[in-house]
Each structure stands twice: as structure tokens, then as C-alpha cells.
Design a protein that fits this description.
Elements: E1 3-8, H1 14-28, E2 32-37, E3 51-55, H2 69-76, E4 84-91, H3 97-108, E5 112-113, E6 119-122, H4 127-143
Parallel strand pairs: 1-2, 1-3, 3-4, 4-5, 4-6
Helix pairs in contact: 1-4
The structure holds flavin mononucleotide.
Flavin mononucleotide binds at residues 10-16, 57-62, 90-94, 123.
């Protein structure tokens, strides 16, 4: 059975709820899913994975969360070539620049971003966003 790993950071739970929806979608598609808070993840966890998801809200000034996710991403970048990555995260007031930068970063590292863009949503995910995230989980399951 394929497995979809979902590495995420969430301060107030919105991105965590999004991560859960990705996991639900992967499971509905017949895969296993593992939710991994980035603080407990290591880049080696993803070394053998062809397809996985990364979640982080917009923090700082349109940046990844800098204590855990940014260092993780910086280390991961060197091993992203050829991988399929699903990106998602919540934001509060910005123009989603953090997500566009994150997409570019993954693509520049040689990864393919599922659907060519991440799923960004203001605040807690609504029903349509949960559906989109479930679809993302299913897409990752088919590539894992
Ligand atoms: C320190 C801090 C910085 C933030 N910076 C931004 C930002 O630059 N742009 C934005 O749209 N939202 C920003 N936000 C809002 C968060 O992205 C938003 O509250 C999000 O829903 C948090 O997701 P979470 O519940 O997964 O932690 C910031 C929030 C905090 C606490």
C-alpha cells in the first residue's frame, strides 16, 4: 500500500485542519497517510518518498514559519528533484505571496508541484477547500 506523508507546521490549528483533509483524501484513495508535525520530522523521513505534502501558514512577512519550517525546507531543497509535492497553508491578511514563493522554490529545486500551485486559504478551511485538499491527498496517493 502506498503511503502519503504530510509534514506541516501550524500555530493555531488552521493548517493542521488542512493537513487532516489531505490525509483523509489519501486514505479515501486507498493509501496510508501519516501526519508529521515538522518539529518532529527529519528530511530523511522524506528521502524515500516520491510524493508527499508540505503545509505551513504565511508567517513573518509572507514567509514560511522561521523556527521549524524554514530550516526544514532549506535542508529539503537539495533533495526535491524529481519529487511530487503538494503544498497547502492558511493565511490571514496577505496576498498569498508566501505560497507563490514556496511554489517557485519547489519548482526551482526540480520538484513538480501538484496542480501547479498550492492550496492557500484564509483562516480555517471551508467545505470547498476541504474538498480540494482531499483531492490533493488523492493525487499524491496516486503518485506515491
Ligand atoms: C507572527 C505572525 C505573522 C503572520 N504573517 C502573516 C503574513 O505575512 N501574511 C498573512 O496573510 N498572514 C499572516 N499571519 C496570519 C496567519 O497566516 C493566519 O493566522 C493563519 O491562519 C495561521 O495558520 P495556523 O492556524 O495554521 O497557525 C501571521 C500570523 C502570525 C501569528
Amino acid at each position: 500500500m502506498s503511503k502519503v506523508k504530510i509534514v506541516y507546521w501550524s500555530g493555531t490549528g488552521n493548517t493542521e485542519a488542512m493537513a487532516q483533509a489531505v490525509a483523509d483524501g489519501a486514505k479515501s484513495a486507498g493509501a496510508d497517510a501519516e501526519l508529521i508535525p515538522v518539529g518532529t520530522a527529519s528530511v530523511a523521513d522524506l528521502a524515500g518518498e516520491k510524493a508527499f505534502a508540505l503545509g505551513c501558514p504565511s508567517m513573518g512577512a509572507e514567509q514560511l514559519e522561521e523556527g521549524e519550517m524554514e530550516p526544514f525546507m532549506a535542508e529539503l531543497e537539495g533533495s526535491l528533484s524529481g519529487k511530487s509535492v503538494g503544498l497547502f497553508g492558511s493565511y490571514g491578511w496577505g496576498n498569498q505571496e508566501w505560497m507563490r514563493d514556496w511554489e517557485d522554490r519547489c519548482k526551482n529545486a526540480g520538484a513538480s508541484v501538484v496542480n501547479d500551485e498550492g492550496v492557500a486559504f484564509l483562516g480555517a478551511p471551508d467545505d470547498a477547500t476541504v474538498s480540494a485538499l482531499q483531492g490533493l491527498g488523492a493525487a499524491l496517493a496516486s503518485r506515491a
